[in-house]
Specification:
Strand order of the largest sheet: 1-2
Number of strands: 2
Strand content: under 5%
Number of helices: 5
Shape: elongated
């Protein structure tokens, strides 16, 4: 019987065993953060959105969420998605930041 995705990301002594699943989780969570922020800020007038665009938009609205976003970018996008950092605590912190940002965006769009 094939294992479910959550069961494949084996953790032992505070470290994940497979970089592939760390990368997948980081990418998925960071994409979720961007989708949530897009719901708040809408479309950019010209060109593609960049990390700097999101930071600029957030700096005008909520400095605390800006800090969470910078941390999420560093953790989810760089450390997890690109590097596949195997430290489970880092993944947990990144996912916690994603949850904070997504909850904030949901409150903003519900208002």
């Amino acid at each position: 019987m094939p294992k479910k995705s959550g069961e494949k990301a084996i953790k032992e002594d505070g470290f994940y065993k497979d970089r592939k699943y760390v990368k997948m989780a980081g990418h998925t969570a960071y994409s979720g953060v961007l989708v949530a922020l897009d719901a708040v800020f809408g479309d950019k007038k010209k060109g593609r959105k960049s990390i700097d665009w999101y930071k600029e938009e957030l700096s005008q609205v909520d400095k605390k969420i800006l800090s969470a976003f910078v941390g999420a970018y560093d953790t989810l996008h760089l450390a997890m998605s690109y590097d596949g950092n195997l430290v489970a605590g880092i993944s947990r912190e990144g996912l916690d930041l994603a949850e904070i940002i997504i909850n904030w965006a949901e409150q903003k769009t519900a208002a």
